[in-house]
């Protein structure tokens, strides 16, 4: 019988599960879909990419809570803002508002 060789870089211990990634469903309200249609193609692509990445990491670096609107968070995409809510129990990210920083906070009714 030949001896079993083990790789020095792999652990023989079972995984702790720390490397598992919770995947969140990303939902967009109808007003977000309408706002996305009005953006130019390059900006739309960047904003959609950021929205999709919220599924893997709903609280990325640079996220800030909205003052006066407790559960809502916002991320910046250049001059554009994405305002959303995270439901950790249901693993759902709901994007409520997407718009230019000059207009996105006016009449905010999320």
Q: Care to describe what's here?
A:
- The protein is α+β, with helices and mostly antiparallel strands.
- It has a domain at 25-100: YaeB-like fold (2-Layer Sandwich), CATH 3.30.2310.
- It is 20% helix and 30% strand.
- The chain has 2 helices and 5 strands.
- The chain has helices spanning 30-38, 41-53, and strands spanning 25-28, 64-66, 69-77, 80-87, 92-100.
- The protein has a 5-stranded mixed β-sheet with strand order 1-5-4-3-2.
- Residues 4-17 have low confidence and may be disordered.
What's the total count of β strands?
5
Look at the helices and sheets and give the structural class.
Answer: alpha+beta
Alpha plus pi helix count: 2
Give the N-terminus to C-terminus distance in angstroms. 68 Å
Biggest beta-sheet profile: 5 strands, mixed
Which segments are poorly predicted (pLDDT under 50) over 5 or more consecutive residues?
A: 4-17
How large is the share of residues in beta strands? Answer: 25-35%
Q: Based on CA inertia axes, which overall geometry fits?
A: globular
CATH topology of the domain at 25-100: YaeB-like fold
Strand order of the largest sheet: 1-5-4-3-2
List the helices and strands and how they pair.
Layout: E1 25-28, H1 30-38, H2 41-53, E2 64-66, E3 69-77, E4 80-87, E5 92-100
Parallel strand pairs: 1-5
Antiparallel strand pairs: 2-3, 3-4, 4-5
Core attributes:
single chain; 110 residues; alpha+beta; YaeB-like fold; five-stranded mixed sheet; 5 strands; 20% helix; globular
């Amino acid at each position: 019988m030949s001896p079993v060789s083990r790789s020095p870089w792999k652990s023989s211990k079972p995984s702790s599960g720390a490397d598992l990634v919770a995947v969140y469903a990303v939902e967009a309200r109808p007003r977000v879909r309408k706002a996305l249609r009005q953006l130019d193609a390059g900006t739309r692509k960047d904003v959609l990419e950021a929205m999709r990445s919220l599924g893997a990491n709903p609280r990325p670096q640079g996220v800030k809570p909205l003052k006066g609107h407790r559960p809502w968070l916002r991320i910046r995409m250049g001059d554009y803002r994405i305002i959303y809510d995270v439901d950790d129990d249901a693993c759902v990210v709901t994007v409520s508002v997407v718009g230019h920083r000059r207009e996105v906070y006016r009449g905010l009714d999320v």
